């Protein structure tokens, strides 16, 4: 079996050890209270496109795709919104989340405001480089980050010669 290339590992001088011959992240799977509401959110807010889902599944769901990644939504009747505490919707950037790169944080912030989506801002500064972050929830409380994180260089903690 041919080993998948790991470009960033090669670019930063780390041995390309890929024990499972992984190629990329294929999809993330999210439980939701309403597949219909979640499909609308991921399409309208993040630009994901609904795609055909195999009919052999014995549970409700939907598949979406864009940016080289899939989102698989699974209907869950008993889902509790993890982000609700004492009746308030808490946006905590330290909660589990997934992140998307964007071209313009200012444009994303403007669009979130137009769509009346509550968000919090984050800012990371390292060596004069500033990363701007926006955090918000999907309809079921899953945390989403939008950032310009690609401006921060990937600095390896190990090199080819260290073990």
TrEMBL record:
Residues 24-149 form the VOC domain. PROSITE patterns: VOC. InterPro entries: Glyas_Bleomycin-R_OHBP_Dase, Glyas_Fos-R_dOase_dom, VOC_core. Pfam families: Glyoxalase. SUPFAM superfamilies: Glyoxalase/Bleomycin resistance protein/Dihydroxybiphenyl dioxygenase. PANTHER family: METHYLMALONYL-COA EPIMERASE, MITOCHONDRIAL-LIKE, PTHR46142. This is VOC domain-containing protein.
């Amino acid at each position: 079996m041919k080993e998948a290339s790991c470009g960033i590992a090669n670019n930063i001088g780390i041995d390309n050890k890929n024990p499972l011959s992984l190629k990329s992240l294929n999809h993330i799977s999210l439980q939701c209270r309403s597949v219909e509401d979640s499909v609308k959110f991921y399409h309208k807010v993040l630009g994901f496109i609904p795609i055909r889902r195999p009919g052999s599944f014995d549970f409700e769901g939907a598949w979406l795709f864009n940016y080289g990644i899939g989102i698989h939504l699974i209907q869950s009747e008993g889902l509790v919104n993890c982000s609700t505490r004492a009746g308030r919707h808490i946006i905590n950037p330290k909660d589990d989340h997934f992140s998307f790169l964007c071209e313009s944080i200012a444009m994303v912030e403007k669009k979130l405001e137009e769509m009346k989506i509550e968000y919090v801002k984050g800012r990371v500064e390292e060596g004069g480089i500033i990363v701007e972050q926006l955090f918000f929830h999907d309809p079921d409380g899953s945390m989403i980050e939008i950032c310009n994180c690609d401006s921060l260089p990937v600095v390896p903690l190990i090199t080819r010669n260290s073990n």
